[in-house]
Amino acid sequence: MNIVVLAAGMGKRMNSDLPKVMHRLGGKPLLAHVLDCARSLMPNGIFIVYGHGGEQVPEAFAAADLKWAKQDPQLGTGHAVMQAAPMLDDSVPTLVLYGDVPLVSHETLMRLQAKAGSARLALLTVEVDDPSGYGRIVREGERIVRIVEHKDADDATRKIREINTGILVAPTGALKRWLGALSNDNAQREYYLTDIIAAAVADGVAVVSSRPLAEWETRGVNSKVQLAELERVLQRNQARQLMEAGVTLADPARLDIRGSLVCGRDVEIDINCVFEGNVRLGDGVRIGANCVLRNAQIGAGTELLPFTHVDGASVGAQARIGPYARLRPGTELGDHTHVGNFVEMKNAKVAAQSKANHLAYIGDAVIGQRVNIGAGTITCNYDGVNKHQTVIEDDAFIGSDTQLVAPVRVGRGATLGAGTTLTRDAPADQLTVSRAKQLSITSWKRPVKKTPS
Ligand code: UD1
Ligand code: MG
User: Fold this and answer.
1) How many domains, the chain?
2) pLDDT tens digits, one per residue of 223-255
3) Residue 52 catalytic?
4) Domain extent at residue 168
5) Residues 9, 156: one domain?
6) Which ligand is nearest to the CA of 182?
7) What is the CATH number of the domain that holds 362?
8) Are residues 37 and 180 in the same domain?
């Protein structure tokens, strides 16, 4: 089939400069949700009608499989489909989607498509408690005879609770003919796509309907309030999928996934965690409260303690990270590593069983196995212009409050005394210490307060 996505409307009630379909739901633009679903149907072509916001939308979503039709000015949903009509393949039916109805599912659209077959007009309809604002499905007996827009409806028609979701499948040749005959003789002076229903009936084309699997699938976004409501629906659905797959969530209402979260078996996630981009958690991973993970991979049996932030980093198995640890891009921690509170790591490769338990900055570093990094250790990786590397070999012991002025290397098994400022390489197996000699002055007297005479 052909898929036409209507995305030209301006979304006035969003009160935003951003085109409506670019607002994000679950970290992804509204239109991207619709396009993912459209692509899952393997259509012959996807045609997006854009207009409000100018070229921003086609530029943001540019892809080889998308074709764009500009609608300017925007004279209604029928007028919008007309802009794409010349590009549509007559030999297959056409599915119309809205760019601001992001959660419609593959299954619901497959069922609608099956209802339509090749020659029927199929409408996705729902029954709602408050139908105001929507187009009403007018039936004679079981037969659908037309759609009447709210603004054009009389009181009796306004009582109808079955509404048009806007999503439909039509035989393409007939659709083009019906579009060509639309008029804007109505309350809004618009070319209504919904007028093709009466045209189909007049042509003797069967009009059928189908329901979505869930009510929220057909909800649109017209305001920030509706956007937030749909965000909750999406998050609730994602949380449910995780729990069904065996993940323990302390509270499914206090979890946000803005991207993809893949979990192994027996994963536990405490409250208020945010997952962005692509995150993978191995078997038995435990995530403490208030952690933020973005494009991260966490190995089996590892525990992230509360308030840990992981961005573009990976952690091996059986590690213990946090509380209050920050792993920045390019960080790769091995198995059984420990990273404690107020430790920041950036572009650091840390091999198995090494530890940095308190208050450290490790940047642009390669650290071997079983290394112990004392509290207050800093890699001075930046000279104000360039970044330099620190290498610490296996079994080294870095005393507290050490500064490693990169580029510098600490040999295997070396010990650095506390407070060392290391500016040259430290040889293997020796104690290196740079520290002012400690002295005590025996004759020193503490000053005493003068008494006024
Ligand atoms: C439309 C339907 C109505 C249905 C409702 C469901 C018509 C005439 N009415 O009404 O029966 O109950 O949706 O939400 O079809 N758009 C364009 N170009 C335009 C106008 C709209 O691309 O010129 C796009 C919008 O960006 C939006 C969609 O079409 O994605 C629907 O437009 P909207 O203005 O929300 O239509 P409604 O009046 O709500
Ligand atoms: Mg609308």
Assistant:
1) 2
2) 999 999 999 999 999 999 999 999 999 999 999
3) no
4) 2-218
5) yes
6) 1
7) 2.160.10.10
8) yes
Percentage of residues in the chain with pLDDT exceeding 70?
A: 100
Q: Give the confidence band of 452 by pLDDT, cuts at 50, 70, 90.
A: confident
Pocket of ligand 1 (CB under 6 A): 6-9, 49, 71, 74-77, 79-80, 98-100, 134-135, 147, 149, 163-166, 192-194, 220
What separation in Å is there between the alpha carbon of 244 and the centre of ligand 1? 36
Supply the pTM of this predicted model: 0.94
385 CA distance to ligand 2 centroid (A)?
Answer: 53
Q: Measured in angstroms, how far is the CA atom of residue 132 from the centroid of ligand 2?
A: 11
- Give strand ranges (E) for 207-354: 207-210, 248-249, 255-263, 268-269, 273-281, 286-287, 292-298, 303-304, 309-311, 314-315, 320-321, 325-327, 332-333, 338-350
- Same domain for 161 and 265: no
- Which of 23, 338, 358, 388 is catalytic? The answer is 358
* Rounded mean pLDDT, 353-369: 98
| Paired sense of beta strands 162-170 and 94-98, if any | antiparallel
State in Å: Cα 107 to ligand 2 middle: 23
The model's pLDDT over 79-104, given as tens digits with 9 standing for 90+, comes to 999 999 999 999 999 999 999 999 99
- How many CB atoms are located within 10 Å of the residue 185 CB? 8
Name residues whose C-beta falls within 8 Å of residue 245's C-beta, 6 or more positions apart in sequence. Answer: 263
- Do 119 and 247 share a domain, yes or no? no
| Residue whose CA lies nearest to ligand 1 atom number 36 | 77
| Same-domain pairing of 178 and 321 | no
| Judgement on whether residues 241 and 383 belong to the same structural domain of the protein | yes
Q: Using the 3D structure, point to which of 178, 195, 218 is the last residue of a domain.
A: 218
pLDDT tens digit sequence for 269-304: 999 999 999 999 999 999 999 999 999 999 999 999
| Residue 143 shares a structural domain with residue 19 | yes
Contact 345, 377 (CB under 8 A): no
Q: Which residue has its alpha carbon closest to ligand 1 atom 11?
A: 135
23, 31, 77, 79: which to mutate for ligand 1, most atoms within 8 A of CB? 77
3-state helix, strand, coil in the chain (%, to 5): 20, 35, 45
CA dist., res. 326 & res. 309, Å (int): 5
Structure tokens at 414: 């070396």
* pLDDT band (50, 70, 90) for residue 267: very high
Indicate whether 198 and 53 sit together in one domain.
yes
